[in-house]
Amino acid sequence: QVQLVESGGGLVQPGGSLRLSCAASGFIFRNTEMNWYRQAPGKERELVAAISSAGRSTNYADSVKGRFTISRDDAKNTVYLQMNSLKPEDTAVYYCKADVWRWGQMFDYWGQGTQVTVSS
User: Fold this and answer.
1) What are phi and psi of 113, to 5 degrees?
2) Residues 17-43: what's their mean pLDDT?
């Protein structure tokens, strides 16, 4: 069974940093693209960052480029999101998502979400 377990959210002041982690199981992690999304109350869910299989490429939302870094450790089946220079507008629930290939089709699996609040 696919499972994604997130950790690392919390309350931080503007300009501070947080590191989110997502521990994965139930699929071949090294073959799987991993993503971080976020959603604030009353707003659409948006893609924050993505990393391809084996970490061959990454991409980021324009709003977080230069501040956030996505990475993965295939030996630990874990994907990370390092968030620096945090702004109040980064406040949202952050979700880990796996793009899992099964039987020639792609399926989306989501973590439980972790709250990030940026406030002074």
Assistant:
1) 90, 145
2) 96
